[in-house]
Structures are given as C-alpha cells and as structure tokens.
Amino acid sequence: MSTTRHTKALIVGSGPAGCTAAIYAARANLSPIMVRGLQPGGQLTITTDVENYPGFAEVIQGPWLMEQMEEQATNVGTVIISDTIVKADLSKRPFTLTGDDGDIYTCDALIICTGATARWLGLESEQTFHGLGVSACATCDGFFYRGKDVAVIGGGNTAVEEALYLANLASKVTLIHRRSELRSEKILQTRLFNHPKIEILWDTVLNEITGNKPGCDGIPGVSGLSLSNVKTNAQSHINVDGVFIAIGHSPNTDIFKGQIELEEGGYIVTKPGNPATSVPGVFAAGDVQDHVYQQAVTAAATGCMAALDVERFIADHVE
Ligand code: FAD
Ligand code: NAP
C-alpha cells in the first residue's frame, strides 16, 4: 500500500546539494524530507580522494564525506527516505511527487538536487560491451583491470582522475582526448604527465570498441579500440582490456521536463544569483542547475542558498 507524506520542504537528491539543503532546512524547523534516489550520497560516492573540499587538511575519501553529510542532516532532524521520484506535478501547491513504489510526497516548497549522470559517446559498440569492458566509473570497476591495459576517454577532471586511479591498478593507461589540451585542473595535469604508466593520445577520437561480442564463441569482452586522429585523419588501433568513458555529465531533469524552465542541455534555469526556478516555491541546487562549476563545494553552497530561500518562501506563503 502506498504512503502519503507531507512536508514543508521536500528535497530530492542526497548529494552535497541535497544534504546541505537538508541541514539548513532542518535547522530552520522546516522538518524536511530528503529522498535519496538511486545514488545515495551522489557522485562523490564513486570517487576516492577528495582534496579540494574545504575544512580538511588531509585528503579525504568521497564516500566518507557523503556519509558524514548525511549523518549531519539526520542529526539535525531531516527525515531521509530511500526512494526515487518518478513523477512530479508542479502545476499547483502543494506540489505532488510520486516515488518508485507509488508513495506520494506533497510539499509546500521543493528543492531539486538531482545532480547529473555520466554521459556516453553513443557508439553502438559502447552498448554492446557495456559491463564487459566498458565503464564510466573507475573506482567501481577498476579492480577488474589489475595488471591489464586500459584506456580513458576525455580531457576533464574526471578523465584525468580516472586515469590516475587506474594507473595504480592497470599495467598501462592510455588517455585519449579529442583536443591537444586538457581542461582539467593544472595540479592533476602535472600528475598525469609525470606518471610513468600513462600515455596520452592527443587529437584522437574513438570510432569503435572492438572485442569478442556476447553470443559469439569464447569469453565476451573488449580487446581493442579503433581510433582516428582528428587533425591528420590517420586511423589506428590499440589493444586494451577495458575502456572508461569520462566525457562529462548530463543533468537529471527528465521528470521535470515541461514543468519548469530548462536550458537546451536540460539544466534547470535558475534566477541570476539565486536558486529560484521558473515555478514559485520550486528551487534547484547543485549540478542540476550548474553546467559551469560543478563542484561539491558549489553544490553545497547552492543547497544552502535554496534552503534559506525556502524558509523565506514558507514564511511568506504558507500559513
Ligand atoms: P550529485 O552528487 O550528482 O547527487 C545527485 C543526487 O540526486 C543523488 O543522490 C541521486 O541519487 C539523486 N537523484 C537523482 N535523480 C533522483 C530522483 N529522480 N529521485 C530521487 N533522487 C534522485 N567535486 C569536487 O568538488 N571535488 C572532487 O574531488 C570531485 N571529484 C569528482 C569525481 C568524480 C568521479 C565525479 C563524477 C565528480 C567529482 N566531483 C568533484 C564533482 C562533484 O561530485 C559534483 O559536483 C557534486 O557531487 C554535485 O552534487 P549534487 O548534490 O548537485 O549532485
Ligand atoms: P567536463 O569538465 O565537461 O569534461 C568533459 C571532457 O570530455 C572534456 O575534455 C571534453 O572535451 C570531453 N568530451 C566531451 N564530449 C566528448 C565526446 N563526445 N567525445 C570525446 N570527448 C568528449 O566533465 P568532467 O571531467 O566529468 O567534469 C565535470 C565537472 O565535475 C567539472 O566541473 C569538474 O571540475 C568536476 N569534477 C571535479 C573534480 C575535482 O575537483 N577533482 C573531479 C572530477 C570532476 P573538450 O575538452 O574538447 O570539451
């Protein structure tokens, strides 16, 4: 049987934005409910070292940081629910959201903190070998490539961190980037360039992932990559046992399509300098509304802003 819960402030998502919004909303006596979604703790739970979240002199671990944030949210009074929102009706207040198993959440104000999910290249072979040598998470799957050769696609912070992480396990890592310059932080680039196990292929794109396809004789899995140089058009092939796709993220906004204003890339449009969306009473924080900074600290900061604005909204609009 489905349950109906009402709260003044509903927070969807449990990454740094959601947890911070929950901490502030709970401390403002709004008795918030935070719905965790399929990735409790968000993106930081699939990384290892975090060394740019202020307050920690030594390197900390992403999953640990998120455990702490969630515990802090609980300790100040947030009700945390393991559910995933599959439907949202934002046409009138209270807003009505529906969970995976049919549970209903109604709220006077909503903070959307659904973050972003890894993007794929869209190659057919990427799908064929998904889970059979193709991955988007080195910390989840890197262990399977101990002593093997792997490649990473991308040139941002994620790609460089994935390459460095994999270099601790694999015998060789090839980073393949479509330009001749990385967009990752300089400190990470220095580590990458100095790593003896990492080779970089510049100006190169992946055309096809090759290997033994499922359903054929033998063990299915990736064995190589067909590449081309975008400047010379030279074609090449390298042998690898696995490939990690790290080409950025897309915002998790499908359930809000048609209900609030979204940008072309699907990011939620917020008002300049504050987290209000096109629907009064609906706020958005973190990566779901940010295609520029996308950091844990900026997600946390906008989560804080959203909760403070919800407090004012409730005071002005709810009896
Ligand atoms: P996310 O962390 O993406 O969390 C989204 C949350 O929404 C999840 O809990 C998910 O379950 C939930 N959700 C989604 N859809 C639904 C739904 N329908 N119903 C309910 N819940 C839902 N940043 C740094 O500052 N430092 C780093 O060192 C760093 N390392 C990174 C390493 C990797 C590999 C990656 C991928 C990112 C890294 N980042 C780092 C970026 C950082 O993780 C993100 O900027 C940050 O997590 C964004 O927080 P968020 O709360 O907006 O969203
Ligand atoms: P990103 O910064 O958007 O970088 C994506 C990379 O993939 C870019 O190098 C891009 O190439 C490449 N790319 C995109 N589409 C491609 C395609 N179709 N084919 C080939 N290459 C493609 O994404 P990200 O690295 O996932 O980082 C996302 C956010 O999280 C960033 O804000 C980042 O700072 C943050 N983050 C932070 C940390 C950290 O602080 N330590 C760690 C991880 C992530 P171009 O360069 O040519 O565009």
Essential attributes:
24% helix, 319 residues, single chain, alpha/beta, binds flavin-adenine dinucleotide, binds NADP nicotinamide-adenine-dinucleotide phosphate, seven-stranded mixed β-sheet, five-stranded parallel β-sheet
Write the layout of secondary structure elements.
Elements: E1 4-12, H1 16-27, E2 33-35, E3 49-50, E4 60-61, H2 62-75, E5 79-81, E6 85-89, E7 95-99, E8 104-112, E9 116-118, H3 124-128, E10 134-135, H4 138-141, E11 149-153, H5 157-167, E12 172-176, H6 186-193, E13 198-201, E14 204-212, E15 221-229, E16 235-239, E17 242-245, E18 249-251, E19 282-284, H7 296-317
Parallel strand pairs: 1-2, 1-8, 2-5, 8-19, 10-17, 11-12, 11-17, 12-13
Antiparallel strand pairs: 3-4, 6-7, 7-8, 9-18, 14-15, 15-16
The structure holds flavin-adenine dinucleotide (FAD) and NADP nicotinamide-adenine-dinucleotide phosphate.
NADP nicotinamide-adenine-dinucleotide phosphate (NAP) binds next to helix 5.
